[in-house]
Amino acid sequence: MKPKAGDKVKITTSDGEFEGIILPRxxxxxxxxxxxxxxxxxxxxIENKKIKKMIVLEEYKTPVLKAKKLKPKADLxxxxxxxxxxxxxxxxxxxxxxxxxxxxxxxxxxxCPELEEIANIKAAKVMSVMSEDAMASDWxxxxxxxxxxxxxxxxxxxxxxxxxxxxxxxxxxxLLKDLNKPVVITGAQRSIDRGSSDAFMNLICAVTAAAKxxxxxxxVCMHGTMSDEFCNLTRGTKVRKMHTSRRDAFxxxxxxxxxxxxxxxxxxxxxxxxxKRNSGKTSLRExxxxxxxxxxxxxxDPGIIDYxxxxxxxxxxxxxxxxxxxxxxxxxxxxxxxxxxxKKIPVMICSQTLYGRxxxxxxxxxxKLSMEVGATYxxxxxxxxxxxxxxxxxxxxxxxxxxxxxxAGEISSREVDDCFLI
Length: 422
Ligand code: DAS
Known about the structure:
single chain, alpha/beta, SH3 type barrels, Rossmann fold, eight-stranded mixed beta sheet, five-stranded antiparallel beta sheet, globular, binds D-aspartic acid
C-alpha cells in the first residue's frame, strides 16, 4: 500500500530513521520531497532519492463526526440552524493541513452544548460552500430552505462563510417577502475547532436572537468588538464585511445595529425601526441572475460596458465615485456606452464610498448620467444590496420602481452621520 498524506510512517534513509506523519505536498511545491511531521511537532523534508525504506505504522482515516441526538424541551423556543459552509463549518485537520470535515448543525450543538439551553434546535445542512463560491442560485436555495421551516420554528439561523455574507443577507432580505420572524446569519473568522474561535459566541448570540428578538427580517449577528463582549444584530441590507480578519469585521453602514446580543441571553435594543414579529405569511420572490456590477476607476476601458451588453446581462449596477460619477469628459468617457446600455437595460448608480448617498443633480456630469443617460440613482443603498435587489427587481412588473421602493431598509430616509465608520 503506497503511503499517503496523514499516514504515520517509519522512514529509513542513509542518514538514519525518522518516524512521523506524512504531510500533504501542495501541488505548487516539488514532489521529490517527503515532508514529515515529527512527534516533536516539527516538520522535516526528506529527499525521496535518499529514502531506502518506508513502512506504514498507522493508516490515516478521515474521522467521522458522531452527530448528537437533539432532545426537545417543551418550555424552550425552537430555532432552525441551516448550515451552508464557510469557516464556521470547517475543521482544519492538523495531521494533513487540509479541511477534512464540514460540520452540520447537529455538530454545532455537540460542540456548543449551551445552544440546547437556549432553544430546541432543528438542524439541516443546506449546502457546503465557502462563501466566495456562493452563487445567486445558492441564495434561492437558502431562501427556499428558510421557507420550508419558517412556520415550524420561532426563528432561523443560517451559518455561512464571512466573505460574501453581506451579499447573502441582502439577497435573502429581498427574496423573502413579508418575512414574519428573524432570519439570523452568522459565521466565524476563525474555525470552530480553534480555541480562540469567534464561532461559539456568534452561534450562541445568533440562536438567542432567532429565539427571542422581537424583530422580523434578515439580520447579521457577528462580534461587536474585538473581544467577546457582545454581538451586533445588524440589518441584512445595511451591513458589510469591512476587515479581512478582525472578529468585529461586520459593520453597519449608513445605519447602526438594531441591538447588542449577549451570551447570557440579554438583548439590548439600540434602535427599533424594524418590522416586528407577526403572523403574516412569508413568501418567495424570484430573481434574474444576469446582473453585473461595474466598479468605476480612473482610466478604465469603457469597453467593459459593451462586454456586459454582449454577454446579455439584464441589468447593471455601477459602483460609481462619490456622488455617483463616472468618467464623463475624457477620451474614455463611459457616457456613450452607458447611453447605449440604458436604452436596453436598467442602469443603477451606487457609490463606492459606501457611506453617504449618491445625488443625480449636484454637478453637470451627474445630470448627464441621470437625465441624458437615464441612469437611476439609488440614494444610500450599498452596492452589494443593489446587486441582489436588481436581480429581484427584474422579476417585478416595474424594475425601476421596485429599486426605488424601500423594501428591507436598504434605503435610509434620514442621514445617519453619527455612525460614520463606527
Ligand atoms: N472563505 C471564507 C468564506 O467562506 C471563510 C470564512 O470566512 O468563512 O467566506
